[in-house]
Amino acid sequence: MRRNLALAAYGWLAATGLLHFVIDVAAQFLRGARPPGIETMLYYGLNTAFACGQVTFGLLGLWLAWRMPQAALQWPVVALTLLAAAAWLLIAWIFIGYQEPKFNAAVFVLLSLAVAATAGMKGAA
């Protein structure tokens, strides 16, 4: 159960980060949806950094939960995951104007809280 929750949380983060990059950066760039300028550069930079951070952290967490599930459920890893989840939610809330990244980060926060709640349980494997 705990391992599945961890896989779900990190898988959600990696998948939504990849989709965020494809939809909000690559598709808009290929369509030429934004005129060239400083605002466009900042938009692409923010969304690229946001999405690449999610994908990288999600893939690292997936690898850790898949290869070493006991290590992925240790409190330092869970605490780092909760900190990262809170940071992505805060960044999405402050800097990104539309709702989808906020929703995706909120789901990751909920999944991370579920992992944290079950990480201390001895009998749930």
TrEMBL record:
Residue ranges of the TM segments: 7-30, 42-65, 77-97, 103-121
Entry keyword set: Membrane, Transmembrane, Transmembrane helix
Name of protein: Uncharacterized protein
Organism, scientific name: Oxalicibacterium solurbis
